[in-house]
């Protein structure tokens, strides 16, 4: 499927390295937190990007595609496919939200849909805390690795300040190591089925065809059956141990590459 060209209606500078791009794409109305777009940037390529609202993406400048996107101005065009994938399922009762790094993009979109929540939001530094304005409907606890804002440490350290068993749903998005710590804690507390987590993997097609995004050992496709999974669906998976690069080679956390 070819991307549809859409205009960038508005650009919001969230921090030195993060911008929100509001898109003129009326068919995105009704898209869900956790869903993603395949975004094609002219002269750079295509990447999956999580929605940070029904019609926006919030993107950190990290590689070729995102850097090129950051150079664009309001009124310029990009191509999009989607929205794709399974989003977060919203449930009754109080929710616990956990986001690390740019996991805050889909989690902040979710926060705008909920009335009763506690959010744990972590970043490396205070400068990298973005989209906090979108958490105004609930309570927010912050951590930074350098201690410049909130509690010093990683976001999962904030789990010492709440009891996850008190919440009807737990939603998480962030780096694999963070997701594994949340999975292990949910398993220990016997609440894996209350946990929904958004998983990131290398995507080529984004529509369930190429197999580049599968999780071992079940072979579930992150772009199609995910990117949001229940904790019990992925507890036994590779999350937190390794991921695959563009060629399908396993990249073990800790930098050790052991081949396919
Ligand atoms: S990216 Fe192709 S199957 Fe998921």
Question: What is the CATH level 1 assignment of the largest domain?
Answer: Alpha Beta
Total number of helices: 4
In one word, what is the shape? globular
Cα-to-Cα separation, first versus last residue: 29 Å
Structural description of this entry:
- The protein has 260 residues and is mostly beta strands.
- It has 2 domains: 4-84, Translation factors (Elongation Factor Tu (Ef-tu), domain 3), CATH 2.40.30; 95-244, Rossmann fold.
- It has 4 helices and 17 strands.
- It has helices spanning 64-71, 104-111, 176-188, 231-234, and strands at 4-13, 18-24, 36-41, 45-53, 56-60, 77-84, 95-100, 117-123, 139-144, 151-152, 169-173, 195-198, 214-215, 220-221, 228-230, 242-244, 250-252.
- The strands form 4 sheets. It has a 7-stranded mixed sheet, sandwiched between helices. Strands 1-2-5-4-3-6 form a 6-stranded antiparallel beta barrel. The chain has a two-stranded antiparallel ribbon with strand order 13-14.
- A hairpin with a 4-residue loop joins strand 13 and strand 14 (220-221).
- The radius of gyration is 18 Å and the shape is globular.
- 43% of the residues are buried.
- The model is unreliable at 256-260 (pLDDT under 50).
- Bound molecules: FE2/S2 (inorganic) cluster.
- Residues 203-206, 208-213, 221, 223 line the site of FE2/S2 (inorganic) cluster (FES).
């Amino acid at each position: 499927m070819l991307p549809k060209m859409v205009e960038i209606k508005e650009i919001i500078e969230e921090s030195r390295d993060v911008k929100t791009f509001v898109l003129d794409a009326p068919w995105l109305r009704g898209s869900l937190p956790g869903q993603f777009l395949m975004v094609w940037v002219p002269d750079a390529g295509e990447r999956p990007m999580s929605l940070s609202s029904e019609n926006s993406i919030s993107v950190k400048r990290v590689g070729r595609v995102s850097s090129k996107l950051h150079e664009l101005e309001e009124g310029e065009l990009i191509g999009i496919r989607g929205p794709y994938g399974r989003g977060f399922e919203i449930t009754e009762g109080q929710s616990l939200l956990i986001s690390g790094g740019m996991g805050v993009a889909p989690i902040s979109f979710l926060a705008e849909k909920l009335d009763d929540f506690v959010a744990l939001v972590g970043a490396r530094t205070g400068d990298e805390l973005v989209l906090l304005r979108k958490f105004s409907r609930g309570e927010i606890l912050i951590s930074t690795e350098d201690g410049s804002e909130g509690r010093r440490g990683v976001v999962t350290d904030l789990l010492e300040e709440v009891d996850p068993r008190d919440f009807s749903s737990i939603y998480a998005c962030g780096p694999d190591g963070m997701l594994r710590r949340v999975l292990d804690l949910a398993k220990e507390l016997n609440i894996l089925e209350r946990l929904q987590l958004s998983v990131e993997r290398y995507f080529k097609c984004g529509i369930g065809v190429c197999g580049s995004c599968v999780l071992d050992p079940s072979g579930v496709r992150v772009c199609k059956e995910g990117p949001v999974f229940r904790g019990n669906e992925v507890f036994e998976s590779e999350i937190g141990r390794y991921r695959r690069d563009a060629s399908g080679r396993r990249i073990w956390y800790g930098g050790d590459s052991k081949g396919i």
